[in-house]
Amino acid sequence: MKISVCIGSACHLKGSYNVIHSLQQLVEEYGVADKVEINASFCLGQCAEAVSVKVDDNEVQSVSGATVRDFFAKSVLPAVGEGGQNQEGEGDICVHHRKEAGTFAGGQALRS
Fold first, then answer.
1. Which of 38, 54, 66, 103 pairs with 111 at a CA distance of 20 to 30 A?
2. Residue 108 located in a structural domain
3. Tally of structural domains, the chain
């Protein structure tokens, strides 16, 4: 699965780095790094809805720091065949993170 997160001007100003960082942490927490690739992308054409996120070839969605966990639970985990449990066997997306995710490098593929 490929998740593209816009880092264009509008999305950058609305927190695209925070969304990318949160996604990296969730990918690590749920142990799906072998199934999920996070890419920084320039303009997905939905600037008014920033931060724009696209999963594979699906429609662009608006995601924020406040909604990234819900987005991950509804759009990512079911698509990669995960039942919504993290590596500790907890059923809900938990608030803590076990490890820091990789660093952001603008425009390059990001993997946790």
1. 66
2. no
3. 1
